[in-house]
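Forwarding the complex inputs:
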Amino acid sequence: MATVDEFINALQYDWLQKALISAILIGLVCALIGVFIVMRGVIFLGEAISHSAFAGAALALLLGFENILFMILIFGVVTAIGIGYVNEKDYMKDEIVIGITFTFFMALAIFFIGLMKTYNSNVQSILFGRILLITDLNFYLLIAFSAVILLVLFGLKKELYTMAYSNELAIAAKIPVRLLNYVFLILVALTIDISLNAIGAILVFAMLIIPAAAAYQLTYKFNKLLVLSAFFGITSSIGGLFLAYLYDWASGATIVLLATLFFGMSFVLSPKRNKLIQKLLRKEDYYDVEPEIQKIPHHHGKEEEYEAFEDHLRQTLVLKEEYKNDGGHE
Amino acid sequence: MVQKLKLEKDTIISVKNVNLAFGEVKALCNISLDVFEGEFLGICGPNGSGKSTLLKTMVGLLKPDNGEIEFIKRDHKKFQVAYVQQMREFDRNFPALVKDVVMMGRASHAGLFRRYGPKDHEIVDQVMKLVGVDHLKDKPQGQLSGGQFQKVAIARAMAQEPDVIILDEATSALDYRASAQFMNLLRKLNQEKNITIIAVHHDLSMLKEYATRIICMDRTVEWTGAPEDAKLDETLLRLFFYNSPH
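Prediction (whole assembly, two chains):
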């Protein structure tokens, strides 16, 4: 077991600096895009894309490629576009498409691994991640892709937010929903692909969902939700890496376990359901709707309402009477 | 769908020979109708008569198999259609305050890769006051009553600076009082702001009370005329009580 001092001393080394920066970037990007995934309710989309990326990694290893990231990117992005296309055509429910994609790529990955003549330790690192062994090329690609993803995500924030609220409203308002849907899917694929080396195909899904779900427990405000999700993502990444170094635990798993701990705490302390926290915060935001209804100024036009109601009753009676007279049955 | 400059007085939407089928089921059969500027058009018909399908086709959510819908405008600005759905189609846990929901009406105005500007905020404040939801602006949308929720939907629609507001059974989850309040609000916007309203409504008496023209449909336009026209009741009786259900 290492000590805290040893960790701080080790921070002067290039490999730990790269690992720490990678962890922060992955925590940030996954947490922010995760908010949109959770709001849109396409949770298992991430799972399907991560497994396709894993199949891409397995194929790259089978073919003996030096850098597997490019194959991961191709598989992830093509899968994301494919899911988007099939969903758009509305051939079947989204869950079925995602379920089939997820299992198909899992099978494909296992098939490729089975074809390998010898055991390849990289397979395990793709599955579970090895953030401490990130290469220079992958590190710089991670920085570049993270910058692009964050730029596009914030550039299209209001459109993606509106689409998450209601796709139909967005279409009616002439937002280019079809194009932005594909852009969003590609952003999700890129986020997963660049995180795969560091955190692994199985656990990257957790980093997309858990920080956002934890933040969801604590606020109704969108911008606050983004900030909280980013906070949980980054803190889990730094904390997880720190603990993994200290106790020689698996880094990816430690990061995810810490994020889950944050989720558990948020769930228990959520002012959305915890009355004690509501009182402590003294926030009307979290109370039931009834007190607010009483505060609404009295509506004018009551006479019109009564007249309309009278007409409504009369009309119903007239229709029924005429129907009876014509020999109909009630 | 086509947008062109206004040629004929008053007509702002022209639906011509629109057909739409879902597989074997014909939802819209050769629908032709004109929508006039500033009118409050009520659409009624039995379940499965294609009312919502017609609205969704007008909004652009569905593409007709053939025929066309023209949006006719006096100036060269983009024709703005605001759409208000049924309340139950929304996630009440969605993280948004009332002002966020109303601001969504400005999303397409601001443009891609641009933030909301001072003009957008100003318009949102104005429409919230106009609709009477400004006191709720910091309230989470999931904690609103049904009536409040639909008023906020109207504020969002107004923020879009629409030429027409299309409502699909927008009061279906509301009690009578809330429905009447909502319809009064629509009438106010229609009369004072000259906003054209197209509303599918389940309550015929309310539609007769508020609409300036009514269309009765059963996969095609069966009748159209003023609410006080005696033929309306005749048509309604035929459609609701004598025609076999789909």
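Chain A touches chain B through 54 residues (CB under 8 Å).
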